[in-house]
User: Fold this.
Amino acid sequence: GETDTYLRCVSSLPTLLAALEVDTPDLVLLNVVPSLHVQTVRTIAAQARGSRIVVWLRSIDPDFACELVRAGAHGILRKTLPNELLIRCLKKVAEGELWIDKTVARHLIE
Assistant:
């Protein structure tokens, strides 16, 4: 069946954390800037209990991506992938799956 989709965009971490005090979204998509730290994902994961977190990166360093998953990210996605894959990733993560690059998956297993 049809489901309603509610999308809210925020432009800063303080605004996101304030929004998470009021509402718990199904999904949080983080458009990563170079200054993102693993602790930021930990903070969001702790405050957004029940939300699934997808981190959207320009490039994926396997070590950093593994740290993000351990910190609470449920999806790691390259910005260079086609929009269809972005949508597929968000749907899969919302359904409870983990979405990570094959390189990161191999790195996690090691």
